[in-house]
Amino acid sequence: MIKIGSFNIPLLSSLGYIITFSLLLLVFTTDVQSNDVKVEASVTPRHIQLNERATLELKISGNTLMKHIGAPSFNFLPNFLAVPLRSKTTPYLVDNRLTVSMAWVYELIPQKTGQVALSDVRFSYQGVPYNANPGIITVGSVDRYIDTATDGIHKVEATVSNSKPYLNQAIEYQFRYLYTTILPTRESPSYVLPTFSDFLVEEPSDNTTTTTRTHGRTYHVDEYVRRLYPRKTGKILIPPAQLKLPIKGNPKILKTKSVALNVQPLPEIGKPANFDGAIGEYSISTSVDRRRLEVRNALTLSVTVTGTGTGTGNINTVTAPKITPMSGFRTDSPILAQRNSANTRIYEYAIIPLKSGILQLPGIEFSYFNPTKETYQTSKTGPISLTVTPNSNGTADMESDSLQWVLWLLLGIPVLALAVGGYLIYRSKTKQGNNKSPSDPPVDPSVQAMSSLQSLETNETAIDASSFVESLTGIIHRYLCDRQEMALQQLTPQEIQDMCQQIGISETDQKELLDIVTKCNYHRFAPVPLTGEERASLISRVETVINNIYRDHPT
């Protein structure tokens, strides 16, 4: 019989068994659920450059009903900045029960180079923490790439020979691609150099390939050189050069560091009066085609300017050396006659002695700034002695040589015709009661010049090239002298320019007139024939200039 208020021993034992089994089942079920939860953390790619990005993907999933999933937490600073891109929830059935998996994607932006072991990523599921480690990622510099397949190193660099050059001083820019192994691709690496917008650029004919040994490894070196001449002063930043490595599936762009320059202006202290901007180291020499000649016959003076030494400057900025006026000589404008090499210029001057005797051409000076010594220097030539004999035709003391008689002969007929025509007009007007001055009206210089040019054009085949250009030059000289009401005389290029400025002729017409005179002077002494087309062109150019002058400044 069972008493009220007391327990039956067998019943109590059964209840204990049930409680114990339930506790064990609960523990077992929780452990299974814990073991069914999976967390993952992966990074791709694991080798990047400082200017590239990596992708971090995090995921939590399981075979049980997934509820109360918390966002993962991590901190990779100061090595990486993590930017969230997206998250994704994926539902699916497990043993006829609905569950989900969660994935998060981040972009990793490297902040420094080196091999970094990333810290754990912490997940939270139903209040239970879970950890996953993304592993190791290697960040290379922008100018370097390590190929894990071959353990090959590829890197680029850019340097200049002088970071503080003077204006127009030559410096060398070197771009080098160094590599320990050749990439296993059919396509070759390709490079892109900066534009060098603030420089005059010269490209050597050949690039070089060499080898060098650094830190116990042998590198092949492809070198590309540019010679630069800075065209402005102050700070100049040369942008990075680039090299594309054609790696299959993941091409790499390597970049050099920017190169900073501080271009110095040329000093004002010690600058010679005849300095025309030549930078570098130069030598100068002179020669003449003959040392014995007659009065008013021309000789050719050749002046050679050559860049020398390591401080060679930009030869394109070298101008013809100035020759000061020489007593007893007439000097025509120089002509750039020859470029023997990329570093040499030869200028030719037509020199005409105006008197006989033992004459001397003085030495010529050429000033330049030597950036190596940081000072102005002057190269000089010695004087050249000449033997000038009287003209064999006995006209040494006349203002013009025998060729000028051709000019006077050509000019005489049209001038006489103009004079007769003017006289007849005058007589006609006198008969009609015109009260104008009884003196003959003066012939307009433009009309006279045009008439002479037409006469010269009709007789172009009757005279040789030397006589033709002599006649054309004479027409120009007479026209300018008549405009200034001066007696006819031979004019130097400088005198022509001065007279044009006094008349007020435009700069464009001045340059055109001086260019025509320079070409005529050249053909007077050069054994180069003039075609009919070339003669007609010269006459047409003179006519155009005279028409322009008459239009702007009628007499």
Can you offer a commentary on this structure?
- The chain has helices at residues 9-36, 403-431, 445-458, 465-483, 493-503, 507-525, 532-552, and strands spanning 37-44, 47-49, 54-62, 69-73, 80-94, 97-110, 114-117, 121-125, 128-132, 136-140, 144-147, 152-160, 171-179, 190-192, 199-202, 208-214, 217-230, 234-238, 242-245, 252-255, 259-263, 282-288, 292-294, 299-307, 329-331, 335-338, 344-353, 357-361, 365-370, 375-380, 384-389.
- The protein has 555 residues and is α+β, with helices and mostly antiparallel strands.
- Strands 11, 12, 13, 15, 16 and 17 form a six-stranded antiparallel β-sheet that branches. Strands 22, 24, 25, 26 and 27 form a five-stranded antiparallel β-sheet that branches. It has a four-stranded antiparallel β-sheet with strand order 1-3-6-5.
- Helix 2 (403-431) packs across helix 4 (465-483) and helix 3 runs antiparallel to helix 7.
- The chain is elongated and about 125 Å long.
Q: Helical region count?
A: 7
The dominant shape is elongated
Radius of gyration: 46 Å
Number of strands: 31
Instruction: Estimate the helix proportion, in percent.
Output: 25-40%
The largest sheet, given as strand count, sense and whether it forms a barrel, is: 6 strands, antiparallel
Task: Look at the helices and sheets and give the structural class.
Answer: alpha+beta
